[in-house]
Amino acid sequence: LAGILFIAFYKRQWLLIIVCIGLLFLVLNMRKWQKERFNRAYRREIEIVFPIWLRSMGLHLQTENVHRSLQHSLSRSPKLLVPHLEKLLFDIESDPKSMLPYVHFLEEYSLPFVSRAMKSIYALLEYGQEKAKQQVYTLLRWNMHYVQRSEQLLDEQRLSGLGLWIALPMILSSMKMMVDLCLLCIQFLKVGQ
Predict the structure, then answer these.
(1) pLDDT at 183
(2) Is the pLDDT of residue 131 over 80?
(3) CA torsion 75→79→81→84, rounded to 10°?
(4) How far is Cα 73 from Cα 57, in angstroms, rounded to an integer?
């Protein structure tokens, strides 16, 4: 690409220079765009699986304390959350009274409902047994909204795959028509000679 750009400058081919600079811009930003797309998809997956995990966590919290509930939820948690939950458990074991492990859980994805839920889970450590049950009930009721949203996102994912299958025959027939049109133009050009 650099060689082509050098030759274009030498021969003063401005169109080729613009095309080369555009391609260079695309090549240099491709990795950044791929990373952003991956983070967006990963964040969307977290939005789908976190409320489901939180619901199972809430069920564990009705009979056990926070630390034991986190340990038991680890075995049945979605694979996407397992490394984050293991880090959370390690951080909690390092400093059991600190709120920081709960605050830093999935912090890099800046999901407000995750931080709110984790702060609520930490608050369960501070409450007595009776207030903790009321807090768990509030947490589960609040989580139902996000469970519905995660189910809606999951349905959208399924429908987007279906949309591709619906559009595929149209795309193929359009491509065939383009080929037929090109062959027709070539045939007319040959007849004219």
Answers:
(1) 86
(2) no
(3) 80
(4) 6
